[in-house]
Write a structure and sequence with these properties.
Elements (H helix, E strand, L loop, with lengths): L1 H47 L8 H29 L8 E4 H18 L16 E4 L1 H27 L11
Antiparallel strand pairs: 1-2
């Protein structure tokens, strides 16, 4: 009887952790959506009220497009998470060339990196025929981009810490 009670207690603790994780997840998603939605609203109201000059309009349109694409990306990620959690979900896999994926990621990230003065380098010494894996092109591409974003954030954080004379990146999140 004690063994059953222990198992029930463990199950309740697992459910409580799952509920807490779910609440944290929704709080994080809400927070991530709040900023671009607020920016979109402010910019749209400004444009509606005619407060932008002719010269400023392209900048506002670019910003609105950028924020909209960011929100779309988040929604796509949420849909992907939902699919991944569905019972019986099976990711489609096919032969993918990592060299092609890396070239695609490089082409996608280069314009933004150039605009920020960041140098991206891509080692193209491996022949494509030696970089074929069985996987999902889109998921591998997303993973590479996310790894790049995390690396950039950590690198920027450490650079900032060193400029301030600190020996570690303490206080950096990500």
């Amino acid at each position: 009887l004690d063994e059953v009670a222990d198992k029930l207690e463990e199950e309740q603790q697992r459910r409580d952790r799952d509920d807490e994780n779910r609440r944290n997840f929704f709080n994080n998603v809400s927070h991530e959506l709040k900023t671009p939605v607020a920016a979109l609203r402010a910019q749209t109201e400004l444009l509606k009220d005619g407060l932008a000059t002719e010269e400023e309009l392209p900048g506002y349109y670019d910003s609105i497009l950028r924020e909209t694409l960011y929100i779309q990306h988040m929604v796509d990620d949420l849909l992907t998470l939902s699919r991944l959690q569905a019972p019986g979900y099976k990711m489609e896999k096919e032969p993918c060339c990592l060299t092609d994926i890396l070239n695609d990621v490089y082409q996608s990230l280069s314009p933004a990196a150039d605009g920020k003065g960041i140098e991206l380098r891509l080692d193209r010494t491996l022949a494509p025929e030696y970089t074929v894996v069985n996987g999902n092109y889109t998921r591998i591409r997303q993973l590479i981009i996310k790894c790049h974003q995390i690396q950039r954030k950590r690198s920027t954080c450490l650079d900032s810490a060193y400029r301030k004379g600190k020996s570690s990146g303490t206080g950096c999140t990500g």
